[in-house]
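Kindly go through the following sequence and its backbone structure tokens. Advise at your convenience whether the structure tokens fit the sequence:

___
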Amino acid sequence: MFSMAIALGLLATCAYGSQKPETCARVGKPAFGGPRDIATISSSDENVLVAPTGLASSGVYVDVLYYINADTETEYYNRVYAINAHTGEVVGAITITNAMTGSSQNWQGLAVQVCPEPMDGSCIFVHDVGLNIVYIVQEESNPASFTMKDAAKIIMYTYKDEGTVPTTSRSIFVDCQGGIYFLSAAFRGRGVRLYRIIENDDSTYTAEPKLQLDIPTASFGPTAASLSRDCCELVVRTEDKIYYYPWVDMMLQQDDARLLPAVINPYGSSIAWALDGSGFYTALESAPMTLAFSPRNKQVPESKFTLGRVIGGVAKEPFVEIAGIAASREHPGILYMMSDEQTTDILVVQMNEGQVVSTYSSGFSFPTIDWEDVAVGPSFDGTPGRSSIYINDGGADFGGPVNRIYVIPETETPYVNTAYETFNLLLYSYLGNNIETHALMVGCDGEIYVFGYAQNFGDPINVYKLIKTSVSVYAAVVIATIPNPSLRAGPEAADISACCDEILVKYTDGVFKYSLTNNDVASAFLRDPTSLPYIPETKGASIAITADCKAYLTTEDQDTSFPAPLKKYERISCCKNEIYNY
């Protein structure tokens, strides 16, 4: 038995000015829990193909979802499947008998909205991005059935400006006035176009660009989009992120984007609002075809940060590249940067402008192999009011890993070139063979942690605490294990805030925050992380939380001959937008 949802007649547009109708009361309050796996999409019938490339909630039943496949090699390419949202079981399907076929056929986007006139009821919109076609078919009164019927309407469109035709699109969404939209896909999400399909006077259709925006991703995106049933909120998915946008006056509000909790997956190509707006679903295209739900929850603590802006370009000489950054505890606004290219120099950088103000060099010669990350923490010798710089020599280049940590006192004169005359060398080892480690962090209690380095998505990453076994000798003991959430090897860097309440872990395609309480790092990694705003950096191996805990910083070496851009992501401490109630 399927439960009836709200009556279609109660649905309203979100086209408001300064006065917001009750139906859009939730807009601008994107508080959601992280995705929770609730089912696996499956069927006992071998004639059912399960490889979701599009997902949408029924417009009539709150516990029914639809999905489509992009497969062109079987006879099941033209079906819209219905599944039970609680169990993931396929319960029915609509076979669109007049759907076009061929090697170019590619079903990628799915939406459900009120039917366009003169049709009645709720309609399913299927986007064939290979043939530039949208099929419109009415929902069945009983979705738990297998039926065959023609699409009630077929829209074939061309692009208004052939010079801006996107290489591909993988999305569709429909507003409350029947406007059909889709987003072009773009490398790293740069220059994504929002298109609306317009009917011309001669009854032909044109995809007209309405807006261009960046939707940062480490891959190729976006992969899906979904507009809430009340047409007030838009969620956009890439393989590594989920973005939230208010939808106001029939337009995406790009300046009010928010990043929602997400799990990176190269096979994540669908997203769908729940009919009642209680959250949204995501699904995987490849086995296991997991169905997950992200619930709306105003009690979920939010860590809001702005998208990064470049605040300066760090001149890297004599470095080839920057492998780590850390914020000084003794000198507000000062950063330390180091390289992995066998140099013992530390660049001292003024944060506000990203300019190098001095070099902190070794007063003697010692070998470096592959420095990978740097942190600032309590003074290693316990001197009150002083801090130390910790550098992890744990990379695999030049014959590494050697698994050493150099501990150097913070400079007393950041604006003057100086040399450090003393340092501590800590040797650490594992129960077994030495492994490569990049990320290093130091707790407010002086404890030292390193991370294993995973090569593939989903591989386990061990978090190690260094336990002293003798003078300057430490054992790396596993205290937590997390799955690699990145599409690339990592993690590259990590940091614990000076406020002792947050851990940030950085990959080249994502930044994740773990809440920390009472310096209990092991327990922090038992909680789900929050994905933070981040502009993907292909060669970005660094992260640092500012000493005042109000922002975090990243860098990327785009070219060896140019300064490294220093990006700042500022914490949003209050919310000023009255319309959206931030």
